[in-house]
Amino acid sequence: MKEKTARCARNLLCLGAILLAGVNAHAQEKPTTNAKIALSNSFASNSWRQQMLQDWDKVTKQAVASKVVAAAPSFTTVQNQATEQSQQIQNMILQGYTAIVVDAASPTAVNGAIKQACSAGIVVVSFDGTVTEPCAYKISIDFKRMGQMQIDYFHKRNLKGNLLEVRGLAGFVVDNQIHSGVEEGLKQYPEFKVVGSVNGDYTQTVAQKAVAGLLPTLSDVVAVTTQGGDGAGTARAFIDAGRKLPVVFMGNRYDELELWKNEHDKNGYETESASIVPGAATFAFWYAQQVLAGAKLPKEINLPISVITQNDLVQSMASTPKGGVYDQTFTKQQVMDYVKSHAAN
């Protein structure tokens, strides 16, 4: 089953193939017509976050129009400011929201506000940037594995030598988790040596500038670990400097897939790509709605990482919007079926 699930995670469009049909819980659902579910988002400065907000808006507008819930607005703070997000959550408590979905700036710094929300009887569901407050539900992703799989891939390619690490947004929980996975992989494969590290902030332009500034100090680089939204910018920095393009692990963004395909068509360049789908926000929305409806759901559930291989590249690129991210949104039925499948396995 683990092998089957791993294959399926390569393309989340096949998720339905592993879902178990028929969840009887919503035959006894409590009505949520008057419920208000808010999204508290810690930043929106890259393509993943922007598409996540679009996914949320699309799915929740349909839910409001269908009278599943009364309202489901989203609110975004200034670039990953935990203090501001805590204040935002406290305002949501005062405004009478029934549930709050949180992509947190910090796993711990917003815990006080989260606990206040729970004490007020508000359902809290965290995803992507999850929190450690026990009262909150968590939609988790193994970001540590996302870091380690990059080193595994480089090893599988029989690469050896200098490695550049492009990290995410400094202080963000996902950055720390992916970095931890990279470190774990390096312990396993000592043939790699990290010769430089920069923060790309999950953004192509920031990554390109940061890598370009570091390149004059580096000798040959055989591979680059990334965190998503930074692969194309990293690759362009090498290309613009006239340097040999190393194996840059990509993050499922259209511009990354496009650059990868163009380089493959020219010279056979190969790499791999991984991320979570921005539609994870819609999974969290339906999770919160179902808790409000009386469903007994696990306090934590894991979503798979979406991996794109060389063989998947053309098909995956064709289904990815230009300027966007390889994606899937979720329906209520898919969420409940996934929960049942997850609990069964």
UniProtKB/TrEMBL annotation:
It is found in: Cell envelope. The keyword Ligase does not apply. This is Monosaccharide ABC transporter substrate-binding protein, CUT2 family. Residues 37-265 form the Periplasmic binding protein domain. GO terms for molecular function: carbohydrate binding. Residues 1-27 form the signal peptide. One of its GO terms (cellular component) is cell envelope. Keywords: Signal. Belongs to the bacterial solute-binding protein 2 family. InterPro entries: Peripla_BP_I, SBP_2_dom. It comes from the Bacteria.
